[in-house]
């Protein structure tokens, strides 16, 4: 068994798991954080995207033991008890998600982009989402929402979360 | 060298099942404060049907979208529904919801009429009020009426209804008949760049004008059009399930089954064509499948316009387009340029 | 059927190591990390507006989606839940001589194995009931399920599939639909013909129409097999209660039909079955019929435990329905001015191993094949044939995307040859209010021309270089 200790959404968590357990299974099966989804399990679709040490990764390609000692941000860690993250609010206002399955992965890829590039161009946004497949929406309203959220985030530097 | 082309494609598409009965049933319950609950056996599969059904119920009851809660997808708790298929939900389930809401509203009118001193058919529901037609100042809050109905009169405002489109069976020899109650129409125009050295096609822009009857929620209609276009781009240029000689799929994975990513999507401009179908709920028809229908045709026509080759089998991969371009060049008679010599060379 | 005592014996044989790791993977940990989100209802103004129709109202599920709080079927878990996997044939056409499940059943952690002969009524389908729940005697395509396993972890279930030994007698197969049409082709579902449905639409007199035409154009168009590719793979959980009632959580777009199919295949009264779909992560037509629901229900009954099955992405491709490839032959006669005087269409649909939604697709494709155009003389014939490939079923458009590609490409070829603007030739021929459809239906609320003009205007069709 592999013993792992990691920071998930700001809280220190531990687990004792079979060594072949992926980070995705650790999040979904052990911590009941089912926001990250299993779409293909081989890193092609991006539905399992989470942010590890600031980088967006496919959780199905990372072993739980590789996440030992790292900071993991999942979709469940974006909102506070007071408000939605601007990305979540923008996605809601623009009806950017339809079936919603790719949503957590897309929103986290967008967050990773905006953390690096607060004023992205449309090609930069398309590039950031290129590892996330969506079959329902055609990405159009997601791009609009990300631009809207970027504007909000640029106007409120004090409330931007880590 | 990149060559630009544009192509147009129009289409028609039916709503509902071909001739066969495809009913939907719905229940609408008005709560004691004038909010409401809708029970529907349909399933939300991403298209936003529950939101749209809620808007239809809200419109019939004269309340707001957020006042309606929609319960779905449980065979124990919700009535039968033929399902989220054939672009039928807004039209068929929507009609069932509207009729059910109408029945619940009729109970409110029965109760409100004596309170306002009129007959039930003189009343209308609007802006969360039950009011007298043409005399809106004579009104009661809908919530008050609902509470009065249930708690004082003992008549909870609840309605159940079903709907099935009217069709006529097709003659087996000639196919003549009325297979569907209504159809929708659309046109998409694509603008592409074709690289005549690699055969790669880039879809730059698609303008889509779609008819959906009354657009119950224009934002969700746009979402369906954008999503349908993404499936159309994949169908036109990328996607294909390949089999080996023994009938086994060769590429059953995302690695080798190519489908559109955010990088493949064109700029999309949407126009909702004005139309009204009296047989649909508030004039609505549907839009789920039609959005994916004309895209491939528009793109392939644009390729033809750009480089003069007619690709007759999908997908129009770069290999196919390049091979067609080369074949066309090989056929063109060689012309010797008459004024090839430059002065001084 | 295994009795509960068998389950107890099986559980004793599971190694401590496996049990320990299973306990660790209990899907309902005692202390779940709390998830924070605002509970205050921030209701967008647009959802408060009356009247409601026409509002750009935000979706009622939009917030849950963005928070990652929407519960899809794979997000659900039950105490003691087992995981099921299905063994796929891997051979396109064969007779099953023997299925040996003893080694798989003996594996520690495997709680039950199921084969086709244990299914009370082993056939289903939206129209023709030609598809088995699990292949029993014959395999018709490489993705056919031949056996299923329920085990304490997904890993063990997958390993157990390898231990199931199936002896096949390979049979001839046919893959090309035009080959399958021939009289001497291998009959997929012998003794029935490979052509399992046909449709014909006749209007006016095409011979007269062609005779009166100034030009006649012909073209053949083909489309490929594609998959719906919903992001969410098929997922199902079956749970029984002591009253012999089964609740099936499943990614089905049609729960009423699903319930009827489960009742039929398991020979149960309908009111003992409950189907719950929560929300489906993308359908597009691929989740409109049952796939593994009866299998999981029986595995759950055998083991006395809830059983969950999720399709792998590979199974999404090989074991669920796909879009019909169609070979389309068009012949159109036009006047010099581009008016269509006669059209003849022949469609051959690749119908895959089973009927599924092919009859509906055939019907729609045939009706729509002439395009949204006024054509007085029309003959449209359509055939769907069995082949030993993945079954073709309902996929967004039911044949419309394929025929639209054909008739609109064909229209542009005609326009080009006659030197007419593609927009103008369509405006010349398109339906109007009160036009007669190919089936003789008088059409209402017809806006084809409006859509053509609106799109052309927005695009700048008349201004752009042609």
Could you please describe the fold and organization of this structure?
The complex is a heterotrimer of chains A (162), B (345) and C (466). In chain A, 33% of the residues lie in helices and 15% in strands. By secondary structure, chain A is of the alpha+beta class. Chain A has a 5-stranded mixed beta sheet with strand order 2-1-5-3-4, with helices on both faces. In chain A, a hairpin with a 2-residue loop joins strand 1 (2-8) and strand 2 (11-17). In chain B, a hairpin with a 2-residue loop joins strand 6 (129-132) and strand 7 (135-141). The longest helix of chain B is centred in the first third of the chain and has 28 residues, at 89-116. The radius of gyration of chain B is 27 Å and the shape is elongated. Chain C has helices at residues 4-13, 16-24, 62-67, 102-106, 154-163, 177-181, 206-211, 255-266, 293-303, 313-318, 358-368, 400-418, 422-429, 448-459; strands at 82-88, 94-100, 110-115, 138-139, 145-151, 165-170, 195-203, 215-222, 235-240, 246-250, 273-276, 307-310, 326-334, 340-350, 378-385. In chain C, the strands form 3 sheets. Chain C has a 7-stranded mixed beta sheet with strand order 3-5-1-12-9-10-11, with helices on both faces. In chain C, strands 7-15-14-13-8 form a 5-stranded mixed beta sheet. In chain C, a hairpin with a 5-residue loop joins strand 13 and strand 14. The model of chain C is unreliable at 1-5 (pLDDT under 50). At the B-C interface, strand 1, helix 1, strand 4, strand 9 and strand 10 of B face strand 7, strand 8, helix 8, strand 11 and helix 10 of C.
Concise description?
With 345 residues, chain B is of the alpha+beta class.
Task: Give the topology.
The complex is a heterotrimer of chains A (162), B (345) and C (466).
Chain A (H helix, E strand, L loop, with lengths): L1 E7 L2 E7 L5 H8 L18 E4 L2 E4 L12 E3 L12 H8 L9 H14 L5 H8 L10 H16 L7
Parallel strand pairs in A: 1-5
Antiparallel strand pairs in A: 1-2, 3-4, 3-5
Chain B lengths: L1 E14 L8 E7 L5 E5 L8 H13 L6 E5 L16 H28 L6 E4 L2 E4 L2 E7 H11 L5 E6 L18 E14 L5 E11 L6 H20 L29 E7 L21 H13 L10 H14 L14
Parallel strand pairs in B: 3-4, 10-11
Antiparallel strand pairs in B: 1-9, 2-3, 2-8, 5-6, 6-7, 9-10
Helix pairs in contact in B: 1-2, 2-3, 4-5
Chain C lengths: L3 H10 L2 H9 L37 H6 L14 E7 L5 E7 L1 H5 L3 E6 L22 E2 L5 E7 L2 H10 L1 E6 L6 H5 L13 E9 L2 H6 L3 E8 L12 E6 L5 E5 L4 H12 L6 E4 L16 H11 L3 E4 L2 H6 L7 E9 L5 E11 L7 H11 L9 E8 L14 H19 L3 H8 L18 H12 L7
Parallel strand pairs in C: 1-12, 10-11, 14-15
Antiparallel strand pairs in C: 1-5, 2-4, 2-6, 3-5, 7-15, 8-13, 9-10, 9-12, 13-14
Helix pairs in contact in C: 11-12
